[in-house]
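During the first year of the project, the team set up a workflow for recording each protein of interest as an amino acid sequence followed immediately by a discrete structure-token representation. This format lets reviewers and collaborators read both layers of information side by side without switching files. As required by the reporting guidelines, we include two representative entries from the current panel. The first entry is reproduced here exactly as it appears in our internal archive.
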Amino acid sequence: MDKVKVVKIEDRIPKLKEHRKQKANRRLIYYLSFFFLLLLVVVYFQSDLSHVKKITVSGNYFVTDNEILEQSKISTKTKYLNVSEDEIMERLEDISEVSSVSIQKKFFNQVVIKVSEFQRVGYFRKENVYYPMLQNGKMLEPLKKNERPVNAPVIVSWKDPEQLEMMAQELQKLPEGIIHRISEITHTPSSNSSNQLTLFMTDGNKVVTTISKFSERLTAYPSLVSELKPEEKGTFYLGISTRFERYNQVEESNEKN
């Protein structure tokens, strides 16, 4: 019969003590680590390290950076972890000119605001005051006295708000290059058409057309002008059919008679 190896309790006591000591040390390290981590969190939130360090605004043209920052209600004093993308987007979309917003949080404590604006398709003139008109038909506050309409036509002699909204929708369909060629749009209703328009172009020509199918008909304008001689100026009648009448054509006809 094999002999059973007996370990005396006196021999086990040092090992038990060492095991307990290691266990106590691990527990101490755990508590100290937790304490220092908690301390770091407290220090972080109480220091400038938790604040937004940089705010970048892009995509805006008519709305200034300051307007966007003021409306967003964030600054370098804002806690980075308190920045809510959804709340900022909701605030900024209250700005009339803003069509959409995207917010991105980046390392280290950076916030990027990307804005898309409604296009200004025209400036409605009333008593020599210009009101920017957006592509959704909404009117903005009038321009200041030292500001002038840019990159969009002036719209005059309009009384029907519904027709004006239709005009805005048609203008937004036009390529930007053609919009820039229109200097002024005047509502000139006739006995044949209540929605007739007269356009004064930046190249000296005029266009007579209607609100209906406006964008479709105006898209052909560059190719129509390219067929003229450089010195030729006149009026394009864009309707069911297209007709061009030189400015001096009527005078020449009267002289022959």
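The second entry, processed by the same pipeline in the following quarter, appears below.
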Amino acid sequence: MTQRVLVVDDDQTVSDVIRRYLENDGFQVSLAADGEAALAAVQRQAPHLVVLDLMLPRVNGLQVCRELRARPDGVPIIMLTARGDESDRILGLQLGADDYLTKPFSPRELVLRVRSVLRRAGSEPPPERPETLTDGELVVQPASRTARLGGTELALTLREFDLLVHLLRHPSQVFGRAELLEQVWGWNFGDHSTVTVHVRRLREKIEANPADPRRIVTVWGVGYRYEPTRA
């Protein structure tokens, strides 16, 4: 099945370049020039992924990201930000964007990021015997991409879920942020603050007191460790 990508950018030149590279890689691409048009396009036919510029007329990219994250289908989002707009980038990640690129960027890299995010969103076949990861009241099933805490399903973004699974599979093992970028995001370069933001968001969803985390523990000067709960 051909995968659909919605590209949202008010710069026609940028949109055309992205469309050409994605179509050459086999994707079906549609364009929207503002946030209002993007939301209407998603409503008409949900894409498999959205490439979303944050600086948009009418409805800005952050509001589009917020509204997309309120949808039950959890469409993956790759943000495009201007270099230096760190606060907007971090806010976008906090709202649930799965990846980001800063302008100017390589169109070939964007295609690779799109492939990576879609692969992690569920195109890989599930294992023959479904795996269940359990830590006290926290139960995670990677094959169905569901996570429950005390019986209540958690609303996790794509990257939050992948990060949680990775940590649960390696209890008590310390990971640096660069290691997590490579092993969870598939990047061998990138802004380490991406990991910091996702760890903070994940703590808010699985910790009884995110300000005093007991599951995802900070190892100062090194990174993070998942500490299983004690009976």
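For the second entry, the following points were noted during internal review. Confidence is low (pLDDT under 50) at residues 123-128. The longest strand covers residues 77-82. Both points are flagged for discussion at the upcoming steering committee meeting.
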